[in-house]
Amino acid sequence: xxxxxxxxxxxxxxxxxxxxxxxxxxxxxxxxxxxxxxxxxxxxxxxxxxxxxxxxxxxxxxxxxxxxxxxxxxxxxxxxxxxxxxxxxxxxxxxxxxxxxxxxxxxxxxxxxxxxxxxxxxxxxxxxxxxxxxxxxxxxxxxxxxxxxxxxxxxxxxxxxxxxxxxxxxxxxxxxxxxxxxxxxxxxxxxxxxxxxxxxxxxxxxxxxxxxxxxxxxxxxxxxxxxxxxxxxxxxxxxxxxxxxxxxxxxxxxxxxxxxxxxxxxxxxxxxxxxxxxxxxxxxxxxxxxxxxxxxxxxxxxxxxxxxxxxxxxxxxxxxxxxxxxxxxxxxxxxxxxxxxxxxxxxxxxxxxxxxxxxxxxx
Length: 363
Ligand code: DAS
Prior knowledge:
Keywords: Hydrolase, Signal. It is an enzyme of class 3 (hydrolase). With 363 residues, the chain is an alpha/beta fold. It contains eleven helices and 14 strands. An eight-stranded mixed β-sheet has the order 2-1-3-4-5-6-9-10, with helices on both faces. Strands 11-12-13-14 form a four-stranded parallel β-sheet, with helices on both faces. Helix 5 packs parallel to helix 10 (336-346). Bound molecules: D-aspartic acid. The site of D-aspartic acid has 10 residues, from loops.
């Protein structure tokens, strides 16, 4: 008896399903049309806008050739992710970025993130100084909206060009509410990096970018996956604001090496540098024959910041050099070019060396 009831029940359930589908289950298409996030692409040039003579030219090409509208049109799938529009802010190779261009770009980003209709920003950028721009924006853009910097290592004309997918991933990250509040981000080679941590570590591979503390996450097939959060102050939690910065002071980097000449510090002073970043050997070491010179640099009111030419690790204060005694600052884990950016931003507020050292611990 139970068996027959079971069979009858099963048949009735099957009939109900057929009727439901036949009468027109509420169509998924009846859902309210969801408006797509609005993402603005600010183009500055670089290889992602580059063009070479042949598909085999993955390293020989001209950067900064392709306009932003063509970049966007070259990835029609962007329209599945967001409403995307472009602005051509610059059209340069990024080794030609200047402080003036950094400030100009920062002010445009700041204007756009204040627009309630804009959900995220993508900045297409050359890879050479991409890490500097990303860190600068991480310090001065007072918004939790995603700002994603992206480049490519091969021009779009090359075989296995990486720019299309990098741009697609950058728009996915910029459009994703999960990307908010993580600081300025860099999307390269499927990874999502903090603009603070990331650096160009290889100058000839598509996997050029890395962070010694690891990426924050990945972007895969139109989705973001997050595994860690930034530990240092940024964006809405920063004491710096692009709206109160008009110019950046000159900060020079002197590269340390065996038998180095101390003339380089004199040249830095002549350039009007307000700080000298010493890209020292090892743990930011200074040769014994250069200590007096660096002390004289400090005595002239110029900040001395000990960074290291070694890619990974971090400089320890008062380890091989008596920083307290000489009134020097250590760059923590920041490479020389990032230490330069942080020093320039900090010195817009005329900080003491004690406050400058706090800033290097916190950002
Ligand atoms: N010269 C490089 C630059 O514009 C090209 C690139 O890799 O983007 O940064």
